[in-house]
Amino acid sequence: MVAGGIAFALAIAFTALASGFLWLLLAMTVMYPASGAFVALSQASLMDLDAERHEVNMARWTLAGSVGAVLGPLALTAAIAWSLGWRGVFAVCAAAMLPLVLGARWAGHGAPAHESFAGAVRGALAALRRREVWRWLLALEATDLMGDVLAGFLALYFVDVAGVSLLVAGGALVVWTVAGLAGDALLLLILRRVPGLRWLRLSGWLVLAAYPALLVLPNPILKLALLAAIGVLRAGWYSIPQARLYSALPGSAGTAAALTSVAGGAGYLAPLAIGILAERFGLQPAMWALLLAPAALLLLAKSHQSPVENK
Q1: Taking a C-beta distance cutoff of 8 angstroms, is the pair 179, 206 a contact?
Q2: Mean pLDDT score of the chain
Q3: Under CATH, what is the fold of the domain 119-301?
Q4: pTM for this structure?
């Protein structure tokens, strides 16, 4: 984690100082695996702190990410207004990483692991033989269709299909981001009263009704309202399946984090598939493919399959 954090901070600093494309490419190449080492292992460490509260702790983790998703664009806007530019934002982020790395170093405790790399690989392969592990890996990739994949096409959809201005399309992204933050905050209250799987099923049915309405209704205002509702309803679609994956692999949080990262590589094909469908049939028909997200969630979130319903 500490090595990944240091490499991540250096990559951000080199991004701020990059004088050309090759230097920027090098910084980005280092940044992504370094982020995985620092962020993914930080998440795994958080899960190890309390094996009985995976869902609540993952909800807190996701809420922190949503706060960053809202504050990041605001920080960039402020930097541009103050003539700092994007380089200034990256420089500040690089400096802010240093206390986080030191905090991770100081917080480290417990006996070091001595498992070999080959042993870790064998453990991951053994985990993949379990149906419960595949269940939640598939759920994570399916629900991302209504997450990052949808967000990637939102502006294009509102301009090319809904016919709104670029300003309104940008507003749609703001609505989506802020609604996600509100939903992640509400999820902490929801999980106090409703089991995670029950919320996944309820929200899955609601999104299964709301998303087709968003695509069919012609009024842009109604589309924005439905988009906000979906942004709130999909709260927990990442945190709960991820928490269930950790619970399915007790004592192996690092393995769960690694499997999530590897499975996420296959998820990168989803935007390509939507793009191919859009090129062949048009963007409006292609967007219907994202209904696979709530449909798959309803199929995978059947409570009788889970041994950890109330965790």
Answers
A1: no
A2: 88
A3: Growth Hormone; Chain: A; (1.20.1250)
A4: 0.86
